[in-house]
Design goal:
This protein is an all-alpha fold. The protein is built from 17 helices and no strands.
Length: about 375
């Protein structure tokens, strides 16, 4: 299957995930600026980032029902709200007020993220094609582009709020591209020949998928949120050069996901996730040990290549364990726990950095990423035939 065909079949979640990527790319590139604006320590910043998980978990729980109720307007509506959410952090100059700002931002962006993944899963079942990786590639490319723009404007001397406004305007264009056509449907009929005969949710598979998502999100978002600080503070990069961390992560993940779109069909999804976990863990270890900006950026690239396909491919693996009509619910429940890694990762880095240093923190991230390997091996052994 061509990548062009995959994009055409999933145009609206493609645009929606690009919106998610642009929001997080802008945020990640400007973490050092936000940290300075609110006067937070590493530990305080980590605690503030946890608050975003609160909003995210609410969205994970509500998304399957809201997608059906709002209908074909769900993705564009949630995309516009995500753009509004990205404008909140620059308005805050106090640590206490950053908590509710990040709760709202986490809620809006996670709602769009979850709704997009539910939509992609339904389209995969309808067209009998793998679509996750190509859609998540757009998230990564938008993330990289937003981080590059934000970092460039910061180097040019622009103020924090003005940088975010520029990126928000560009992101709004992506959000409006997520409008669904009139042929939209939230339902897929069950196939009596589906390998999963159970009419309930496969909680064991959901739990293992959640663990894979959790470890992957910790690896991905730890680099997103803290690589800029690592490059500037630990390795002595100039202000603004830290944005090369998030930029490299997004760009390499985008390329990796496009490749994963093709590899998953030939090598098998489980094998792809297993070796991706190995590569991601080695990359995180390399970042922890890096002594130069160039080696750190290469290590970030290794993490990105490892993390690139895990989340989208894990969604497709879980779908094999559940009847088509329950896919959205199963994925949302796996993400309810797994997506907390998206916020726990940066928070964990903050606490470990406060207690030890950033090198120790990224070393621990390497250990957590390695949990992907046994989890996917168990899933492969229990997969319905």
């Amino acid at each position: 299957m061509s990548i062009v065909k995959a994009v055409r079949l999933s145009r609206t979640p493609f645009a929606a995930l690009a919106t998610v990527g642009a929001v997080w790319g802008t945020f990640a590139a400007l973490v050092p600026t936000m940290k300075a604006q609110i006067g937070a320590s590493d530990g305080e910043l980590g605690l503030a980032l946890i608050s975003a998980a609160v909003g995210g978990m609410i969205s994970m729980y509500l998304a399957p029902k809201l997608v059906v109720k709002v209908g074909r307007y769900a993705l564009p509506l949630f995309a516009v709200l995500a753009v509004v959410g990205m404008l909140l952090p620059p308005l805050v100059h106090d640590l206490k007020m950053m908590y509710p700002a990040l709760v709202l931002m986490g809620l809006t962006v996670a709602m769009l993220d979850m709704s997009s993944n539910i939509r992609i899963s339904l389209l995969e079942e309808r067209h009998k094609l793998h679509l996750m990786n190509v859609n998540h590639a757009m998230f990564s490319f938008a993330f990289a582009g937003a981080a590059l723009i934000a970092g460039s404007l910061k180097l040019a001397g622009w103020e924090y709020p003005d940088i975010v406004k520029v990126n928000a305007g560009l992101t709004l264009i992506l959000a409006l591209c997520a409008i669904e056509g009139r042929g939209w449907s939230a339902h897929v009929e069950d196939d009596d020949d589906h390998p999963s005969a159970s009419t309930g949710l496969p909680w064991f598979a959901i739990g293992l998928t959640a663990l894979i998502l959790f470890a992957s999100f910790i690896g991905e978002n730890s680099v997103e949120a803290w690589s800029a600080l690592f490059l500037e503070r630990v390795l002595g990069g100039a202000p603004g050069e830290g944005s090369f961390g998030p930029f490299t992560l997004g760009l390499v993940m985008g390329v990796g996901r496009l490749a994963g779109q093709l590899i998953a069909e030939k090598a098998g999804e489980e094998r792809l996730v297993l070796w991706s976990g190995v590569l991601g863990a080695l990359g995180a270890l390399g970042l922890a040990l890096s002594q130069s900006l160039s080696f750190a950026v290469v290590s970030i690239g290794a993490i990105a290549l490892g993390m690139a396909v895990i989340v989208p491919t894990a969604n497709s693996i879980l779908a094999k364990f559940v009847r088509p009509s329950l896919r959205g619910l199963a994925i949302s429940r796996a993400w309810l726990f797994g997506f907390t890694g998206f916020f726990v990762g940066p928070s964990l880095i903050g606490f470990l950095s406060q207690a030890f240093d950033l090198r120790i923190a990224f070393g621990f991230v390497a250990v957590l990423i390695s949990l992907v390997v046994p989890a996917v091996m168990i899933l492969r052994a229990r997969q319905p035939r």
